Amino acid sequence: MEMSFRWYGTEDPVKLEQIRQIPAMKGIVSAIYDLPPGETWPRETIKSMKAEIEQRGLVWNVVESVPVHEDIKMGKSTRDSWIEKYQETIRNLSHEGVKTICYNFMPVFDWTRSKLDAPLPDGSHSLMYDEELIQQIDPLDGSLTLPGWDLSYQKDDLRVIMDEYKEISKEDLMENLVYFLERIIPVAEEEDVLMAIHPDDPPWDIYGLPRIITNEANVMTMLKRVNSRNNGITFCTGSYGADRNNDLISMIEHMKDRIHFVHARNVRWTSEKSFQETSHSVHDGSLDMVGIMQKLIEAGYEGPIRPDHGRMIWGEEGRPGYGLYDRALGAVYLNGIIDAVRERR
Ligand code: DNO
User: Fold this and answer.
1) Name one GO biological process term (predicted).
2) How many domains is the chain built from?
């Protein structure tokens, strides 16, 4: 597997020089951040980001994410022009040699948490999701703003969009996703690009918005409806694993040919639909990280993997979930498992 690390560009307090010093680190997962969602990414911008990463002895192996314009998710009449822009971005990335693209199809809100600095018993803190608290928060009143959310919306626009979503069922959303895939996957095939959809996080509906990339049945439907190897997934252990009904080992078995990127992290279930993120260790969270890694290896997975969110430890301050220290520990832990499992085979 190609151990990789998410980097938010020159604004990121975590520097490429630091990432480079994590043992066996190879890839950088990044994106162009200063363009409005949906606009085509120019080749020149991609090229200079790639050069910056390569100067530090790393490789830009995965884009996370190319955002999908809301009109595409909503199936609006304007979607075709946004899809053309998306196709162009795929071509531009491919021409610059970046061949794996992570994206998501979550209506309006990307990953959602109720608290960004919930304490853990060891004195560190981490991201937490409490279903009851989330239900009490009005996402439009401004009291909760999460790093994954697109802030380019005006509040009133957002209210209109959320109202419009009331008319869009899960089935409609799946049709809109298939419509999008039927048009971008042929381009990905031509360009030898692997598309890797990220699960909805958490993997259930929030704020009355439909969510579909949540479980094995839905993902299999999506994979079969557009049955191409280039139509694949980001296997995010923490997102799928937040729902204890998801059997991660079975998912890997059934999706193995279509996993193109892995996010590895652990969570501790605190109630039916609530959880807190923990260190990557199998001793801290509810997920069997060793079993999952072993299964990925047995399934022949050789692609990029990154330690996902970390706790904030040792007094570090920074982007919630994306500090240096705990993600570095995560990378080393995951590599230890990979090396040990390989050795034993
Ligand atoms: C959160 C991330 C997500 C992810 C997108 C992919 O930390 O895992 O924001 O990047 O959903 O499109």
Assistant:
1) D-glucuronate catabolic process
2) 1
